[in-house]
Amino acid sequence: MSDIKTICSIIAFAPLVGAILAGMGGRIIGRAGAHTVTIAGVGISCLLSIRLLMDLLATTATGEPVVYNETLYTWLESGGLTLQIGFLIDQLSATMMVVVTFVSLMVHVYTIGYMRDDPGYQRFFSYISLFTFAMLMLVMANNFVQLFFGWEGVGLVSYLLIGFWYTRDSAIFANMKAFLVNRVGDMGMVLGIAAVAYLFGSLDFATVFADPAAHSETTFQILNGEPWSAITVTCVLLFIGAMAKSAQFPLHVWLPDSMEGPTPISALIHAATMVTAGIFLLARTSPLFELSETALSFVMIIGAITALFMGFLGIVQNDIKRVIAYSTLSQLGYMTVALGASAYAAGIFHLTTHAFFKALLFLAAGSVIIAMHHEQDMRKMGGLRKYMPITYLTCLIGTLALVGFPGLAGFFSKDAIIEAVKYSELPGADFAYLAVLAGVFVTSLYSFRLLFLVFHGKERMDDHTREHLHETPLVVTGPLMALAVPSVVIGALAIEPMLFGNFFGDSIFVLPGHDVLQGLQSHWHGALQFALHGFTQIPFLLMLAGLAAAWVLYRQKPELPGLFTDKLAWLHRVLLNKYYLDDFNQTVFAGGLRGIGQFFWRIGDVALIDGLLVNGSARAVGAFAGVLRHIQTGYLYHYAFAMMIGLMVLMSMLWFVIQ
Amino acid sequence: MNAYPLLSLAIWLPIIGGALVLLSGGENRLQLSRSLSLVISVATLLITLPLYQGFDSSTAAMQFQEIHPWIERFSVTYHLGIDGLSLPLILLTSFISVLVVVSSWANIATRVSEYLGAVLIMEGMMIGVFAALDAVLFYVFWEAMLIPMFLIIGIWGGPNRVYATIKFFLYTFLGSVLLLVALIYLYRQSGSFSLLDFHQVALDAEVQTLLFFAFLAAFAVKIPMWPVHTWLPDAHVEAPTGGSVILAAIMLKMGGYGFLRFNLPIVPDASQQWAGLMIGLSLIAVVYVGAVALVQKDMKKLIAYSSISHMGFVTLGIFLFSAHGLEGGMAQMVSHGFISAAMFLCVGVIYDRMHTRQIGDYGGVVNTMPVFAALMMFFVMANSGLPGTSGFIGEFLVILAAFDNSFWVALTVATSLVLGAAYNLWMYRRVIFGAVANDAVAALTDLNGRERFVLGVLAIAVLGLGVLPNPLFEIMHASVEALLDHVSKGKL
Question: How many CB atoms lie within 10 A of CB A325?
C-alpha cells in the first residue's frame, strides 16, 4: 500500500474540507454544490477506509497482524509529556472507520431528500461532514488527547445539530442539556486521562498499553483509609466519560431529548456512530480494563440496568423517534454489558450490526415522517404499509434484525452477548444475564408495537394527510435499501472472523481468565448451525412472546393497553415520567447550581465583600473623616489657639524631662 | 545584545505616538487620529515580531537586554530584558492593541484622539511592565498604567463609571502600595533595584512571608483572586468595549506575571509554604466565581466573572510548582487574552447596535446576524475549553498538574468543565438562539467588514494556538525549568 500517512490524512481531512467549503462557501456553491462537495469528501473517506480494512485483513490472514502507528506532528511538549497528533490504524479502528464513513455516506445521500425544503440546507451538510471528521479523529487517534479532541468535536456538532432548528424552544433546551450532561461525563474522562498521564507518563496508546500490568499494584490514596487500586480508579473515571457519550444510566437523560434534531442526525449521530464512541473507548482501553475486575463489574451492571430499564420506557412512548431512541439506549446497554464481560469483540460486533439496522430504522422513521408531513405521533399513523411498501419492507427487516430474529444481523450479535454474559464469572454477571434475557422480550414488544402502530391496522391520520400519502423519493429509499443489505447479512458474515477468528488481531486485549468468548467458541459449528440452533433457544422464545404480546395488544385487542394504563396507572406514570430522573436533575442539579450561584453572588460578593468590606471601609473612612472635619473649621483663631495649647504641652513635657 | 533597542522601541513608540495622536486631535481631523493610531499600533506589533524570531529558546537568561544608568544615587537603572515568561505576554499586548485600535474606530464617537492616545500610551506602559527588570522602572510603569485606564473608564464609560473607576483605582492602588514597601525593603537588602539581584538575595523565612503577602496584595488584586475580585465586574460593566478588552486580555495577566516574576523567584520558600492557601483560593475562584457567573443577567458581568474563574486556573497552575502547571498557567493567560478579547468584542458588537448588555433584552439574534452567531458560537466554545481551541490547553495541563498534587484538587478544578459550559451556553442560548425576541433584534444588521476582520483574526488566533500550541511552549521551557529549579532550591 502506498504512503499510509497520506491515505489516513485524506480519510480524516476530506470530510473537513467538505465541511469548510459547504459551511463558509455555502452561499457561493449553492445547495447542489454543498451536497456534492460533502458527499465527495465522505465518499472518498469511505472508499479508502474500506480499502484500508481489506488490506489489513489480508495481511492479518497471511501472518503477523499489521498495525500502522503514524505521527503527524508534535502538538505539545510539556514537563516530560510529549503529545502528538497521529493515527493508530488497526483492525479495531479500521472497522469503526468503515462503519462511520459508510453510515455517514448513506445519511448524506438521504439528507438530500429529507432536508430538501429546509433553508439551512448547506449548514446541515457542513455540520454532518464536520461530524464525520471529528468522529474519524476520535477512532483513528493514537493517543488519549486526540481521542478527546474528537470526543468533544462530535459533542459540539451534536449540540449544533440537536439545536439545528434553533427557533424551537424544545430544541435549544435539548441541545444545551445534551452538552451539559456530556460535560459531566467529560469531567470523568479528563480526570481519567490525567490519571493515565500520572501513572504512565505518557498518553500515547502504544506506550500506555505496552505494559499496564506494571501498575496493577499501584494505589491512590483518595479517602483516608483503604488505598484504591490506581487502575480501577482510572478505568472508572474513563468509563464515566463513556457513560455520558454512550448514554448509560444515569447519564442517559440527554439522548431521548436529542430527537429534537432532524432525523438524519438521529440516525447518524444518536444511533449509529457518536453514541458508540464510549463503547469504542472501552474496547480501545481494554488492556487497562482487563486489569480491574471491579471496574468491569461496574461496567457490566451499569450496562445491564441501561439495557433493561431503558427498554421499558420504549414501550410507553408515542413519538416514533423516541421509541427508537429508547431502543438505542437499551442496545447500547447490551454493548456495555458485553464490554463488562470482557467480550469486547462481541460489543464491537453488536456496535457494527446495530449501526446498520438502527440507522436503517431511524431513516425509515424519517421516511414515514416525511410522508406524514412531519407528524411523529404514532397514534395518528396506521396502515402505512400499502402506501409505502419499500419503507415498510426495509423497516420490517430492520425490526427483525433488532429483535434478533435468527439469521439476521442482530441475532448473531445479541445472542453472542447473551451467551458471553452467561460464561462470565464476575460479580453482577447473574443480574446482567437476567437483564439481557428479559431485555429480549422488551425489545421485541416495543419494536413490534411500533411496526403495528405505524404500518398496520386502522389509518388514523386526517384525510388531507392520507390523500397525499405516497412512497418517498429514491434519495430517501435508496439509502434504506442500501442499509437493509448489511442489516441482513453482516451478522452471518462477520460473526466467525470477529468473535472467533483473528479479525481484531492485537487491537483488543483479553486476559485468558476473562475470555468468555472461548466458552462460546467451544460450541461453535458455523453461522448456519448457530442460526438454526437459535430457533430452539430461550431468547427466540422470548422474542416470540414479545411479538405475540404486541400482536394481541396492538392488533387484536387495541382496547387492552388502555385497560393496563388504567389499572397500573402509577407504573404508567413512572414510565411516562422516565423514572422522574429529568425532574430530579432539573430540580436538584440545575436548580441547585443556580441557587448556589445566587447565594454566592448575593451573599458573598454583593453583601459581604462589597457591602461590608469594600463599601463598608469606604463608609468607615468617610465617617472618620466626618469626625476629623469638625476640627478643621477654617477659622484662624481656632488653629492659633490649638497651636498655643500644643506649645504649652510640649514645653511642660520638656520641663519635666529636664527635671 | 541586539543591534536595535527593540524593547525600548516597543515601549516608547506607542507612548510617544500616543502623545502625537493626542496632539492631532480635533473634531475635523478624526480620520487623521484614527489612521495615525493604527499605523503606530501596527508598527509596534512589527517591532515585537523580531523579538520572537531572534529569541533563543534554549536559555533561561534574559535576552534583548538594555541597561543604562538612570538614578545612580539609588542604583536605579533603566534595565529591560525578556525571557520565556515575558515574551508571550509582550506579543499578546502588541497584538491585542492593534485590534483594540481597529475596533475603536467606530464605537467611540467622542474625543476620539484622546481615547486612541490613551490606548497607545497604555500599550507602551504595559509592554514596559513585562520588559522591566529594574524594580523602580517596573513600579513606574505598573502605576502609570492605571492612569490611562482610569481615564478610559471614567470618560468613555457607562452611567455608573465614577463608582467603578474609584473602586478600580483604590483596589489596585492599595495593593500596589504594599508592593512598593516590599521593593524598597529588597533594595535595602540587596543594594540595588535590579530584579535579578532580588532573585538572588538571601532572605529568612519570616521576611519571606511578609514579602510574600506584600506581593500577594498587589498581584491578587490585579489578576484578580477571590476575595479581592469585586472591582473587576464593576470596571468591565462601565468600561467601553476597548477598555474591557485591554483590561481582560492584558491587564489581568500582569497579576499572573507578577507571581512568576516576584513571588516565586524572590520568596521561593514562602511561596511553597503558602501554596496551600493559594491553591484553596484558586479553587474557590474556579467554583464559586463560576457559579456566580451562572446567575448574571448582564453579559459583561458574566464574562468578567468568567475571566476571574479562568484566572483561577492560572494561579492554581503557578502554585502547583510543576512544569505542566506553570506552562499551563502561561498558556491559559495567552489563550484567555484572545478569548476574553473576543468575548468582549462580541458583546460590544451587539451593544453598539442595541445599547443594552442585559441578556433578557436579546433573543433570536441568530435570525438576523448569522455570521456573528457563528463566530460567537466559536468563542463561547473556546471559552468553555473545547479541545482544538486555545482554551483547552491551559485548563488541560493545569488539571494534569492538579492530579499530580491531589485527586480532590483535580476533581474540584475539573468542575469548571461543567460550570464553564453551563454559563457560556446558557448565555448563548438566551441571547442568540430562539425566535426573534423583539423589534430591536429584528432590525439588527450582521457584522460589517471591520468587525468581521477583528473577530476573524481572533478566531484564527484561538484556533491556531489550539491546533499548534508547541511554538508557544518551546519559548517557555527553559525559563520555566530554571524557575522551578530556583524554587526547589529555595533561599534558606
Answer: 27
Helix or strand (DSSP H, E) at A86: strand A81-89
Q: CA-based diameter of chain B, in Å?
A: 70
Contacts of A185 in chain B (CB under 8 A): none
Q: ipTM of this predicted complex?
A: 0.91
Query: Is there a contact between A76 and B291 if contact means CB atoms under 8 Å apart?
Result: no
So what's the pLDDT on residue B27?
Answer: 65
Closest by CA to A134, choosing from B470, B386, B457, is: B386
Q: pLDDT for A289-327, tens place per residue? A: 888 888 999 999 999 999 888 888 888 888 888 888 899
CA distance A56 to A41: 22
Residue contact A597–B291, C-beta within 8 A: yes
Nearest C-alpha neighbor of A539 from the set A434, A649, A383: A434
Instruction: Report in angstroms the alpha-carbon separations of B53 from B49, B50, B57, B123, B129.
Output: 7, 5, 10, 21, 21
Distance (Å) of CA B263 to CA A46, A71, B60, B176, B252: 56, 40, 18, 14, 16
CA B437 to chain centre: 35
pLDDT in tens, B67-84: 888 888 888 899 999 999
Residue type, B306: S
B364:A78 CB<8 A = no
> In the structure grid, which three cell numbers stand for residue A487, read together?
442489516
Calculate the CA B265 to chain-centre distance. Answer: 21
**pLDDT tens figures, B168-181:** 888 888 888 899 99
Query: CA of B422: which chain A residue's CA is closest?
Result: A180
Contact assignment for B399 to A194 by CB distance below 8 Å: yes
Q: Which of A517-531, A556-570, A590-604, B464-478 has the highest mean pLDDT?
A: B464-478
Q: Which of B401, B431, B399, B427 is nearest to B415 (CA)?
A: B399
User: What is the CB-side half-sphere exposure of residue B339 using CA atoms within 13 A?
Assistant: 34
- Tell me how far apart the alpha carbons of residues A109 and A473 are, in angstroms, rounded to a whole number: 12
CB contacts < 8 A, A to B, total 137
The partner residue sitting opposite A183, judged by closest CB among B291, B296, B418, is B418
DSSP calls for A122-160 = HHHHHHHHHHHHHHHHHHHBSBHHHHHHHHHHHHHHHHH
Burial of residue A90 (CB within 10 Å: 0-12, 13-18, 19+) is: buried
Nearest CA in chain A to B414: A187
Q: Decide if A609 and B230 are in contact by the 8 Å CB cutoff.
A: yes
Place of cell 471491579: A294
Q: Considering only alpha carbons, which residue of chain A is nearest residue B324?
A: A79
State mean pLDDT over B368-390: 92
What is the SS3 assignment for A229? strand
Q: Is A74 on the interface with B (CB under 8 A)?
A: yes
CA angle A272, A276, A279 (to 5 degrees): 150
Spatial distance between the Cα atoms of A397 and A480, rounded to a whole number of angstroms: 10
Q: Check CB contact of A609 with chain B, cutoff 8 Å.
A: yes
Contacts of B173 (CB under 8 A, 6+ apart): B143, B146
Using the Cβ of A621 and the Cβ atoms of chain B, whether some distance falls under 8 Å is answered with: no
Number of neighbours of residue A332 by Cβ within 10 angstroms: 32
